Amino acid sequence: MKQIIKQLTEAFGPSGFESEVTELIKSMVQEHADEIRTDVLGNLIAVKKGAAAGKKIMFAAHTDEIGIVVTHIDEDGFLRFANVGGVGVATLVGNRVRFKNGAIGVIYREKGDWKELTLDKLYVDIGAKNKEEAAEKVKVGEFAIFHREFTDLGDRLVAKSMDDRIGCAVLIEALKRTEKPKNTLYFVFTVQEEVGLRGARTAAYGLEPDLGIALDVTLTGDMPKAQRMAVSLGKGAAIKVKDSSLITHPKVKDLLVDLAETAEIPYQLEVLERGGTDAGAIHVSRAGVPSGAISIPTRYVHSPSEMVDLADVEACVKLVAALGDWDISRLF
Question: CATH number, domain at 121?
């Protein structure tokens, strides 16, 4: 599974430009799915057909990652940029970015007080001597991602874009382990989550699922002087209670807890004070979809070095597989 995570996290896929990631995932799942297709917006949908009397479950993990987009090239060849998704200014200075064509740049700042640092005081240096040379490498409107390699620390892994390629890895592995589920399962690898849950919204509208579950990262409270939060690396799958976009349906939360306890899957309950997932769009689709989320505890979210624990990843895979084979007609 480490190799899958490495491939996914090192792929290029800022919001709106996820095709490299979705094509990679397609190559990984096409032998295991009964049906696979890409919708108009770019969501990759892999279907595992269940019993005729079964219900429809939509699992969603987003393929896009945060990044930047070039807004201006000055006469000396330096690039100005805007954020794509929730980019934190504090993580940018000194970091490198990579464009689709392979061009690499270094982000740095104008002189001034660090306390007053904002995006408009940052620039990207791609090694160009002037505007003309820079424009031969990168154009205004081109997107870039953080340039950072996958690192294997043993039981823990570090990479850029664990948010949410690790959720994609969970769904890939769960799909591979699923043979003949009771329900028809839609493994949806969504686009443009980081800029407004856009792919999940259209996919849920088209699929009309009976139950929606997002697979995404969540914050942890286990670092020095971290914000208080009862989620830690290595303590299992995080079953969401609430975030900014969703209050998990009580019956869905209770079901996930019961499944985890029955199968002896380690879990923890997650209350995320800020942030959301694709479930925020799924649960208000059409006339409404009972929804929840299974979260992968992750340190340093929205930085170029996000960390996960393999035991938590495995717990999430097992919980997805258990839910897919549960008779959800008994839920409502």
Answer: 2.40.30.40
